[in-house]
């Protein structure tokens, strides 16, 4: 009877032990089968009440069972502990390994130079404004003194946009320069005006090392009473010295733009050869950087500013040209082809 109980107990205990997967479960198993309230201990206590012969046989067997339980418990404990260490090792990480490298972004060379240009003019009291890149023909050409049949329109290879309004034909385009922003500003605000307008411009152009179909310009405009060509010269000379170094010389020569009279082209003496002539300046000693002039009276009249009372100067420059000159970049297409190996250098 007792022997039967012991056999049953043993097989149940082994069964359950096989299912134990961690040390907590093992402790529960120990309490269940070897604890003070376990069946085995109760059986051992019960032995005293048995007749002597039965007591010897059952007692021996019960003690055997207890020993096996204890042995199996110790065995299981060792193997569980080993497994725990192994899995800890597997999950461990080497805190001395170097971390993953974080890639830092940086400002695009165009953004950097735009910031620099804007700061210089802001220091001189100019306000930064922006205009639309999709523009009416009126602002891009007409209001800038270039009526439909004006030959100067040929200077600007234009990307036209198909667009019909209810009012009929009102041609649209991608602005070919930032000069239309001048008109938009003068339409809205009376003089005194001092603004610069940075932004993208577009040309219908086959791209090569020196031509892009999209690039940046900065436009400038100052309108007030008594503004003269001397103001234009002083402002742009100061700008050139701040951007390219205070030892720079400036050269102003006549040029033609329909929206100014007189028109000038501004050059600085070559900062590589100092004017002696080199590859950068094409041996001339001078580098042209800005188109400018006194705002044409016709342009002022169109925006209802009386040219008898007010005068102004305007200028425009290409932005990429400056880093191209500074760093000797030999292909303008590098700017917007998004090759980080190029962009990271600045
Ligand atoms: N808009 C001209 C261009 O894209 C540059 C320019 C020349 C702007 C003379 C001006 C200016 O404001 O007065 O070639």
Number of helices: 11
Helix-strand makeup class: alpha+beta
Helix content: 40-55%
Tell me the strand order in the biggest sheet. Answer: 1-7-8-12-11-10-9
Q: Write down the secondary-structure element order.
A: HHHHHEEHEEEEHEEHEEEHEHH
Sheet with the most strands? Answer: 7 strands, mixed
Cofactors and ligands: 3,4-dihydroxyphenylalanine
Low-pLDDT ranges: none
Fold-level CATH name of the largest domain: BirA Bifunctional Protein, domain 2
Give the terminus-to-terminus CA distance.
Answer: 93 Å
Q: Give the tally of β-strands.
A: 12
List keywords for this structure.
single chain, 346 residues, alpha+beta, BirA Bifunctional Protein, domain 2, 2 domains, 11 helices, 40% helix, rod-shaped, binds 3,4-dihydroxyphenylalanine
Describe the structure.
By secondary structure, the protein is α+β, with helices and mostly antiparallel strands. It has two domains: 2-90; 109-343, Bira Bifunctional Protein, Domain 2 (BirA Bifunctional Protein, domain 2), CATH 3.30.930. 40% of the residues lie in helices and 20% in strands. The chain has eleven helices and twelve strands. It has helices spanning 2-19, 23-34, 39-46, 52-91, 109-123, 137-140, 180-188, 229-244, 297-302, 321-327, 340-343; strands spanning 127-128, 134-136, 159-161, 164-165, 168-169, 172-174, 193-202, 214-224, 250-255, 260-269, 286-295, 311-318. The protein has a seven-stranded mixed β-sheet, with helices on both faces. A three-stranded antiparallel β-sheet has the order 2-6-3. α2 packs antiparallel against α4 (52-91). The longest helix has 40 residues, at 52-91. The protein is rod-shaped and about 140 Å long. 3,4-dihydroxyphenylalanine is lined by residues 177, 179, 219, 257, 260, 291-293, 314-316.
């Amino acid at each position: 009877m007792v022997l039967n109980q012991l056999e049953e107990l043993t097989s149940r205990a082994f069964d359950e032990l096989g299912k134990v997967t961690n040390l907590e479960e093992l402790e529960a198993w120990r309490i269940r089968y070897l604890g003070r309230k376990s069946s085995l201990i109760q059986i051992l206590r019960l032995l005293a009440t048995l007749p002597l012969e039965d007591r010897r046989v059952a007692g021996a067997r019960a003690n055997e069972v207890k020993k096996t339980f204890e042995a199996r418990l110790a065995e299981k404990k060792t193997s569980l502990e080993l497994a725990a260490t192994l899995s800890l090792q597997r999950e461990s990480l080497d805190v001395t390994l170097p971390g993953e490298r974080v890639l830092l972004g940086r400002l695009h060379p165009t953004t950097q130079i735009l910031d620099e240009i804007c700061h210089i003019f802001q220091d001189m009291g100019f306000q930064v404004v922006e205009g639309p890149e999709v523009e009416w023909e009126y602002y891009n050409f007409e209001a800038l003194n270039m009526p439909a049949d004006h030959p100067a329109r040929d200077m600007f290879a234009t990307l036209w946009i198909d667009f019909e309004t209810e009012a009929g034909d009102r041609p649209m385009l991608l602005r070919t320069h930032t000069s239309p922003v001048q008109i938009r500003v003068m339409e809205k605000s009376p003089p005194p005006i001092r603004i610069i307008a940075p932004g993208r411009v577009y040309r219908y152009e086959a791209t090569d090392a020196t031509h892009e179909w999209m690039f940046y310009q900065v436009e400038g405009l100052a309108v007030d009473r008594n503004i003269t060509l001397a103001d234009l010269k002083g402002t742009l000379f100061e700008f050139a010295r701040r951007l390219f170094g205070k030892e720079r010389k400036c050269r102003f020569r006549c040029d033609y733009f329909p929206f100014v009279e007189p028109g000038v082209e501004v050059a600085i003496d070559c900062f590589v050869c100092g004017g002696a002539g080199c590859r950068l300046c094409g041996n001339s000693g001078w580098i042209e950087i800005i188109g400018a002039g006194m705002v044409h009276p016709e342009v002022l009249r169109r925006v209802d500013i009386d040219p008898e009372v007010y005068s102004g100067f305007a200028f425009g420059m290409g932005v990429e040209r400056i880093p191209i000159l500074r760093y000797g970049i030999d292909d303008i297409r590098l700017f917007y082809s998004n090759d980080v190996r190029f962009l990271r250098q600045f």
